[in-house]
């Protein structure tokens, strides 16, 4: 196909939507927050549905929602709550529930029930909650007996998911005393913690970062004192992770894509994809509230890049690498094996079917560019597999995706958008 040359507006950030909904629900009882620019997708659907099950009053008008706060005392104290396949909801809700009192049965999709939550629930147990696993210890489903959070010190690992820490931080101000959350090991995707702390700040709460190692000055713990969240009106940024596929489409087709509603100074980690695109020869224009990519004649490869800080883009980089002038290696993403799918194995399977060589390591991969042999690809019920393989489909005719509907996790209208920018998309019956 020809070059993609277009302006696009991207829907609100999934990460910000689920954080804002939960923080607004935790705000002082009877206060009403207005959250503007939410993303409508599976992950936010289950978040709204869970909060409503717990008695939170939520009015929705387009992409604006009004959320009535409960101050951590959930109106419904004996509830069955479903978190779907959403990692954010599944890791943010248990701490928020543990701030109150009640018996909550938490269920998730089969996919989410394979993703670990043990370290988060261990931390909540230390803080006073009681957890009864209904199937496998450390995984959904489980019953959470909540009796408020004690002001204590807890430790969580940072190398599996940053969402444990985000979830604990958001609940911590509603504990009975100061809570210190210590990090064990290095933290994956640390900017998500900045996102959490900034939004907490928007709702009137502060978090203190504690540095114990003067040499590295790395934050090793967070201190949160008892504070109330105040209802606010907040406007959410566009989703930088979804924007990544549109930036990549420009890079891949010698095209031009301007995302008209995303400023490159966002704290969302996936904006760092721009650095990889620049390295591959794309030109990045950064404007006030917008970001534009102009693709090169040929994508440059021949480098290795750590995606530790923005690993949701690992498959995007993997898809682009197929068309580069030399191999590209991605490192430091072991934790994406525990995302919606084992993403390294999923990419390997897809590229192998396309006759593209990929070498897998425990924590990354190398893609060797070559001619693509069109094939039917599995998507592993993983939206990012579907969207990144759609990038290959944007330049190679005949790529078929099984279960393309899995994009609804974060971008339900992805294929309509893909068609609107000029990619040939045909829906098949089977
Ligand atoms: O906090 C968040 O909003 C997210 C954190 C990251 O998860 P992990 O830290 O579990 O990798 C990221 O992959 C996910 O898409 C969103
Ligand atoms: C890992 C992801 O999602 P989550 O952890 O929020 O389910 C993602 O969107 O790539």
Automatic annotation (TrEMBL):
Predominant subcellular localization, coarse grouping: cytoplasm
Keyword Cytoplasm: yes
Any single biological process term in GO: amino acid biosynthetic process
Keywords: Amino-acid biosynthesis, Aromatic amino acid biosynthesis, Cytoplasm, Transferase
Catalytic activity, as annotated: 3-phosphoshikimate + phosphoenolpyruvate = 5-O-(1-carboxyvinyl)-3-phosphoshikimate + phosphate
Matching InterPro entries: Enolpyruvate_Tfrase_dom (IPR001986), Enolpyruvate_Tfrase_sf (IPR036968), EPSP_synthase (IPR006264), RNA3'P_cycl/enolpyr_Trfase_a/b (IPR013792)
Transmembrane segments: none
Family: Belongs to the EPSP synthase family.
Protein's name according to its UniProt entry: 3-phosphoshikimate 1-carboxyvinyltransferase
Native source species: Alicyclobacillus mengziensis
Gene: aroA
